[in-house]
Amino acid sequence: MLRTAAIFASLPLIASCAAQPEYDNLTSERVNYYQVETTKPYDEVLAELEIAIAEHNFRITGHSRVGKVIRDRGAAGFPEYDTVQFCNLTLARTMLEITPHAIGYMPCNVVTYQFAGKTRIRTHLLPEHSDNPDFNRFAAQMNPQLKQIVDFAAEQ
């Protein structure tokens, strides 16, 4: 009985000596978004978004026209909803060499949609306060670019 009690009492100590998994805590904080609104026509916003993405040396990897597809399937009058995915492979490589766990932030994504008579343009930002200082520095350089892309698309 004493031996069993000693074994159970020592389990927390043994567990604390076990190797900890190696990963960066990139998910401990909530995802931050950057969003602006504009009264500019929706099609102009999409065109400007494509220009801004190219000017920042990214390539569009996907464009989902969710609102249009829903309208095409019979929901006349359904509002506009689009997602545009984009990437720069050099930056992607740099980010993934810093930590492979950053794959969840790829590709970059901007959503546009109509709400209350305006067009909203929104992107998620990379976390700048993770447990990985190298990733934080990378994010601090990337986030202003993402904001500039959104701002350019919204400019009147």
Question: Would you write up a description of this structure?
Answer:
InterPro entries: DUF302 (IPR005180), TT1751-like_sf (IPR035923). Residues 73-123 form the DUF302 domain. It holds the Pfam family DUF302. This protein is α+β, with helices and mostly antiparallel strands. The chain has a single domain (29-154), classed as 2-Layer Sandwich (TATA-Binding Protein), CATH 3.30.310.70. Helix content is 44%, strand content 22%. It has five helices and five strands; from the N terminus they run αβαβαβαββα. A hairpin with a 2-residue loop joins strand 4 (108-115) and strand 5. Helix 2 packs across helix 5. The protein starts with a helix and ends with a helix. Residues 2-23 have low confidence and may be disordered.
